[in-house]
């Protein structure tokens, strides 16, 4: 039985870990995840999905703020693991730790060498890609630059957003790992080097990138909104206040960018640089997320055709 240390944080990682736990081929010696964080307005302490799963199975769980030079890393190196598997862990692994095991591989949610970094699914949607995927790769000191062990892809559907694709790719990554890992360990899979000329990056979304530019096309704004839902959520401004938009659709209409060109009790259409969009789910400043009809029948009653977003 192959002895593993697993490192991961969100639901994506928990799905991969569950696959390893369900297999009879692996023993999970320890789990490493990010520290508990305060979330929401009430600042409630929240455990990561990986920690919750580890606790359910009685696994030893480490949560170092930083692995390098930590007591936790020393303890991990003393476990005698054969290998390390990571999936959306959120930290770089020190070279000393990588050298302490026979192998270390990462389940990365992109078709490498495209989209190295922490937000590959976001950028795939924002850029209007037709497909997304998972790459199993060897871990090296440089971010997401290791040789590729296996790949699998799925098409992006019109209704997809970051949340739906994370769920889908978690299953793809789990299955790809379970299929390829035995052959990799046995030396039957020869990893392939990434083509450095094809490398692109997907860094974490910055606050500036969350802001909608109404001069973009309707399609670009559609992709931006779904490429930031359910996190971090794209926003514009209305009467000087931040106004989040969780969902919209393209419509065949024209007007001045950012201008409201149609308003009914259940429909609000805003012009873009080319085409228009109909808002479906929104969140005014200081309020919960709501359907556009609820907004228009309440806080948005005074909006008029001719008013502008983005100001």
TrEMBL record:
Residues covered by the Formyl transferase N-terminal domain: 4-178
EC code(s) of this entry: 2.1.2.9
Ranges where the Formyl transferase C-terminal domain occurs: 204-299
Transmembrane spans: none
GO CC annotation terms, alphabetical: cytosol
Keywords, in A-Z order: Protein biosynthesis, Transferase
InterPro entries xrefs: Fmt, Formyl_trans_C, Formyl_trans_C_sf, Formyl_transf_N, Formyl_transf_N_sf, Formyl_transferase-like_C_sf, GART_AS, Met-tRNA-FMT_C
Residues binding (6S)-5,6,7,8-tetrahydrofolate, per UniProt: 110-113
GO MF terms, alphabetically ordered: methionyl-tRNA formyltransferase activity
Reactions catalysed according to its record: L-methionyl-tRNA(fMet) + (6R)-10-formyltetrahydrofolate = N-formyl-L-methionyl-tRNA(fMet) + (6S)-5,6,7,8-tetrahydrofolate + H(+)
Enzyme class at the top of the EC tree: transferase
Highest rank taxon of the organism: Bacteria
Pfam families assigned to the protein according to its UniProt record, in alphabetical order: Formyl_trans_C (PF02911), Formyl_trans_N (PF00551)
Function: Attaches a formyl group to the free amino group of methionyl-tRNA(fMet). The formyl group appears to play a dual role in the initiator identity of N-formylmethionyl-tRNA by promoting its recognition by IF2 and preventing the misappropriation of this tRNA by the elongation apparatus.
Family note: Belongs to the Fmt family.
Protein name: Methionyl-tRNA formyltransferase
